[in-house]
Every structure is written in C-alpha cells, then in structure tokens.
Amino acid sequence: MKKSFLLILLMTLMTMEAMALMLGQTPPKVVLEGKNGGKVDGTPWRSEMLYGKVYVLFYVDPDERNTNEAFSEALKARNFPHDKYTSVAIVNMAATWMPDFAIEAKLKAKQKKYPHAIYVRDRKKVLVKKWRLKDDSSDILVFDKEGRLIFEHSGKLNKEQIDKVLTLIESQLADSYSTLIDNK
Q1: For residue 142, what are the β-bridge partners?
Q2: Which of 90, 125, 136, 152 has an alpha carbon within 20 to 30 A of 28's alpha carbon?
C-alpha cells in the first residue's frame, strides 16, 4: 500500500513538473475558449499561436495591471516591427474582485487602441494551473520565433531587468533579420 502511494505521489509530482514552463522549451499546449476565456473578439486563443514571431506575453491580475507599466511603455517606445514581434496580454480574470463586464470593456478599448497586440481572457486561471504562473501577480514571458520560452519573470521588473529584456528581444529580432538575409 505504501509503495503504491509513493509511486502515485512520484508520478503526480513528475506530471506537475512536466507542466511547468522551462527556459528553452516550448510551453505545454493550452487553449483558452468558451467558459475558460479566449480572445476579446470571442475566438479561441491557443498557445501554438506563439510561433513565427518574437512574443512578449503579459499574464496579469487586473489589480496588478500597472505593475509593469514602465516595461510596457519601453516596449511601445522601441516600436518593434509588427511582422516580427507581437505582444499578448492575458488577463487573469479570476484573480480580481472587479466585475467581468468592466474588464471586458477595458480590454475591448485596448484592443481597438492597440490592434497589433492580442488581448485574451483567462476566466479560470488556466495558465496558473497548466503553466504554473504566479497567481495574483504580473508575469512577463518572452518567446522566440520557434515558440521557446527565453525569459520569465513574476512581479515588477526593475530598470536593469527591463534593459535586459529589451536587449534580448532586439537580439532575437536581429537573428530574424540575419536569417532573412541569409535565405535570400
């Protein structure tokens, strides 16, 4: 009986670890649709969409929406080319006391103001469970064009970290440009 319990416990821990995000790896597949959420336009969001470009993903508790405003502004100021870079904002709607309709209205307004960004709702903390992101926080993830995680941070980025992430994104975009030149 004890051996069975230990084996089940070990398998559970291994499964949980396999679901966690790891630098240099593509994340476990996740779909946000229907009662779990989805894009602001009502279509599903799939983690497989994080391919082909450099993606910066913000996973944010609405109560923490201003935590990484300095990083967000620094990204906007760089004006990275939209054909090579996209930002994704996924709102952890289950992490707040705010009513869904108020969040929905803000997301629709932001989507209209920033049409190149992708705004997504996570109504059931799917990414907290599947990717083990920090709940009630502001998480920043950067993916390369192959969909591999190349940066992850939970909480507020300081000036040094912001500079580091911007340099990382620029190097990824430079790699994209050199690949294009090499292929011509």
Answers
A1: 56, 151
A2: 136
How far is residue 147 from each of residues 19, 24, 62, measured CA to CA in Å? 16, 9, 26
Structure tokens that stand for 138 in this block: 């502001």
CA distance 184 to 181: 5
Superfamily covering domain 20-183: Glutaredoxin (3.40.30.10)
pTM: 0.84
The domain spans of the chain are: 20-183
pLDDT tens sequence across 4-24: 544 454 444 444 444 578 999
Taking the C-alpha atoms of residue 180 and residue 172, their distance in angstroms, rounded to an integer, is: 13
Report whether 33 contacts 126 (CB < 8 A).
Answer: no
Rounded-to-10 torsion of CA 141, 139, 68, 43: 80
Virtual CA dihedral for 27, 52, 165, 141, nearest 10 degrees? -30
Residues 6 or more apart whose Cβ sits within 8 Å of residue 35:
123, 124
